[in-house]
Design goal:
Length: 422
């Protein structure tokens, strides 16, 4: 099926919303199929897909979504761990199987309209994502260019068997919350061969907050052969991790001018466990801090409460988060400016079980920066590893060049290697 067959419903090419709705209804009635979008510009409202459908956005085609919140119906969803009505994503599927968005065309969210509305506090509900699959199974998203997303760019929520490959995601550096790809409470996700240049985290793996109903783990995630350009973090776990994040592999990726490389973030009250993380064959260049494990993350609701920033020990409960079992091998990080690694666990629940092998980090002159978003984080320049409340840390295979000091660790840290061998 070709969307051009429905051009009579496009209002002389100025609004293709009804054309897409009629074409997709036709596919739904016949049990699925492929909707082709040939070269051209298609102003439209949001597009919803159903079982056994493929949206093929061909080279030269641009889906340009309307700058008008009235064009976006509300849907029950979750954003940043909070359930409630959200403006429907530009491309959306819910409880669908065998859904595919492919082609070498462009999806343009015209996000500046939404960013301005957010800054002016003129939106009654959270902004739409550019692409969202909610509770779907067997999902493929490949090869398209995604640009100027209103909020998160790609948001698989409670999905299973998701393949994301070959995307080019581009959002301005100052655009708010325009993360690249955020798998949330998903299982069996493969992300590969993507280039991501955004205004927030490039990839953020999430599993809800303490306020999320029916929390589920995000697990069995593979990220490989990707380029991360700019952004606050290259690959991030959290801070929404209350449903657990486990069994994640990140390999053969290049990070260029991301504020941080690998970033794990959480805080008291979240609960949940992050474990079984394998990071290997990574190149980082001009990254402020290659590794940040922060259990005092202060952003978002309740982020400034005393229980978040207080460095005194608290009782261990179900609301106590846990970060453990991380293996890092084969990393080269060059021209890093703030510090080589920042690990800060809770007094009552230290970061545990960090192993590094064949890791070389080169520090260089540059502006001082804050490695982690936490109250009391010191501003750093050319620092080595900064460790607080960490146990079973093995840095035997690590070399740091150009740092003023290789290691800053207090008595709360237990190292599994002899310092005199450094």
């Amino acid at each position: 099926m070709n969307i051009r067959d429905y051009a009579a419903f496009s209002r002389n090419g100025q609004d293709w919303t009804e054309a897409f709705q009629r074409a997709i209804a036709g596919l739904k009635n016949q049990g699925g199929g492929v909707l082709c979008v040939p070269a051209g510009i298609y102003p439209t409202g949001p597009i919803r897909l159903y079982d056994d459908m493929t949206l093929n956005i061909e080279s030269g085609a641009v889906l340009r979504f309307h700058r008008d919140e009235a064009a976006f119906p509300l849907t029950a969803l979750e954003f940043e761990g909070t359930a409630g009505p959200v403006y429907q994503a530009c491309i959306y599927a819910e409880k669908a199987k065998n859904v595919c968005v492919t082609g070498y065309g462009t999806v343009d969210g015209q996000g500046s309209y939404w960013w301005d509305k957010m800054f002016a506090h003129e939106l009654a509900h959270p902004r739409p994502c550019l692409v969202c699959f909610s509770e779907c199974e067997h999902v493929v998203l490949e090869n398209v260019t995604l640009t100027d997303s209103p909020a998160w760019t790609v948001h698989p929520l409670r999905c299973r068997n998701v393949v994301i490959r070959g995307l080019y995601i581009r959002n301005p550096a100052d655009s708010p919350n325009t993360d690249g790809i955020n798998p949330n409470a998903c299982r069996d996700v493969r992300i590969s061969d993507c280039t991501i240049d955004v205004g927030d985290d490039c990839i953020a793996i999430k599993s809800g907050t303490e306020a999320t109903p029916n929390r589920r783990p995000c697990e069995r995630i593979i990220i490989s052969n990707c380029h991360f350009l700019h952004g606050h973090g290259g690959v991030v776990l959290g801070s929404e991790m209350s449903g657990d994040i486990r069994n994640v592999v990140v390999s053969s990726c290049v990070f260029h001018e991301t504020d941080r490389g690998i970033r794990l973030k959480t805080r008291r009250g979240r609960g949940g466990v992050v474990e079984g993380i394998q990071l290997n064959n990574l190149i980082m260049e001009r990254v402020m801090c290659p590794f940040v494990f922060n259990m005092y993350y202060f952003c978002g609701a309740d982020g400034k409460m005393k229980h978040v920033w207080d460095k005194a020990p608290y009782p261990v409960t179900e609301a106590t988060p846990c970060l453990r079992d991380v293996s890092i091998t084969g990393v080269r990080a060059r021209d890093c400016t703030a510090c080589a690694g920042f690990f800060y666990g809770l007094k009552e629940m230290p970061v545990e079980g960090i192993t590094m092998r064949d890791v070389i980090i080169e520090m260089t002159d540059g502006p001082a920066g804050y490695p982690a978003m936490m109250e009391g984080c010191p501003k750093m320049r050319r620092a080595g590893f900064f460790l607080r409340n960490a146990v079973n840390v093995d840095l035997t295979g690590v070399k740091v060049h150009g740092a003023d000091a290789w290691l800053d660790a207090d008595d709360s840290v237990r190292l599994d290697f002899p310092l005199h061998d450094r």
